[in-house]
Amino acid sequence: MVKYPRHARDRRLERNISHDDVMYCLKHYHTSYPDRSDNMIYRADLPDGRHIKVVVKAKTSDPKVIITVADY
User: Please, are residues 3 and 22 in contact by the beta-carbon 8 Å criterion?
Assistant: First the structure.
């Protein structure tokens, strides 16, 4: 389960990244690494050929709090 604060929800809609895309990235990422604040960044290649990243707030598990989503 994930939670989208306003910023993450707005970026997801603005960038045409669906909830299913976010879930796919979190389950099928090929790269993950922490940023300077220990938030986790997950990168995945979607089945439609797009490449996205999802940033998850540090120290959240259920629900995971999404900070932002973007193409990369």
Answer: no
Q: Count up the domains in the chain and report the number.
A: 1
For residues 39 and 58, is the Cβ–Cβ distance under 8 A?
A: yes
d(CA 24, CA 7): 20
- For residues 25 and 52, give the distance between their C-alpha atoms in angstroms, rounded to a whole number: 7
Q: Where are the beta strands (DSSP E) in 1-72?
A: 2-3, 31-34, 40-45, 51-56, 64-71
pTM > 0.90: yes or no: yes
Range of the domain at 46: 2-71
Q: What is the mean pLDDT of residues 26-34?
A: 98
Residue where the block lists tokens 């998850």: 56
